[in-house]
Design goal:
globular, 6 strands, Undecaprenyl pyrophosphate synthetase, six-stranded parallel sheet, alpha/beta
């Protein structure tokens, strides 16, 4: 069986991620609507090349936009990426500060490209704890791309699945105190409505790079019935062809969502 990596025909446009032959390998009606990615392996990639850790994060940021283009060309509507976890705050202060600078610069640098290519930016997580300059860049870029409608790029920043559930429970307790509902009337749908991801729905496909076999506190509620795809490729080396391979694998699976 031919794989996406073995198809090398020229691209019609330099903004395209895939050739016509590669696109012919996917089923257009079985495309995942929402794909989530745990982008792991930046620091390991840098160590393997004898580079400072921040070089891995810079390279990972560039990889992200290549994958956004790939997802857009395939027709994926939402791409949610684990960018900075609540646990990442415990890293050395210099690394955390450098990461925040990367986020700010990325949002400024890619803003015009997002607008041109129809990428609508959003973010999930406990955003109020981010540095003000990052919060400002998020607000500005979200506002500038609000009209874009090809794909939603959702950055999970200062995000943790447990923290999201904690915040959701707090919102529900406020509604309960306001007598908005009775406890016996609490439903899964009501909980989902309080989650950061509610506007985008649950992911159909979760991709994890770098070969690790864990979900790392990412979208704990939302991935209950997501298909999971693991690859040994480190995130900075993750190419559109790898994304295509994940989508093809997703399309051949029998999604039962808990049924027989």
């Amino acid at each position: 069986m031919t794989t996406p990596s073995e198809v090398f025909t020229p691209l019609e446009d330099d903004r395209d991620a895939f050739s016509a032959k590669q696109l012919a390998m996917v089923h257009p009606t079985k495309m995942p609507n929402h794909v989530a990615i745990i982008m792991d392996g930046n620091r390991r990639w840098a160590r393997q090349k004898g580079l400072p850790p921040m070089m891995g994060h810079w390279e990972g940021a560039e990889t992200l936009y290549d994958i956004v283009r790939a997802a857009t060309q395939l027709g994926v509507k939402t791409l949610t990426v684990f960018s900075f976890s609540t646990e990442n705050k415990s890293r050395e202060a210099d690394e955390v500060e450098s990461l925040m600078e990367i986020f700010e610069l990325y949002l400024h640098k890619k803003r015009d490209s997002m607008i041109q290519e129809g990428v609508r930016l959003d973010a999930i997580g406990n955003l109020s704890e981010l540095p003000q300059k990052v919060q400002d860049a998020l607000v500005e870029t979200k506002k500038a791309t609000a009209h874009c409608d090809k794909i939603n790029l959702v950055l999970a920043l200062n995000y943790g699945g447990r923290d999201e559930l904690r915040r959701a429970m707090g919102k529900l307790l406020d509604l309960y105190d306001q007598k908005q509902f009775k406890k016996e009337a609490l439903t899964e749908e009501m909980i989902s409505k309080q989650l950061d991801t509610f506007p985008f729905g649950d992911p159909d496909l979760l991709i994890r790079t770098s070969g690790e076999m864990r979900i790392s506190n990412f979208l704990l509620w939302q991935i209950s019935y997501s298909e999971i795809y693991k690859t040994d490729v480190l995130w900075p080396d993750f190419l559109p062809k790898h994304f295509l391979e994940a989508v093809i694998e997703y399309q051949v699976r029998d999604r039962r969502k808990g049924g027989n």
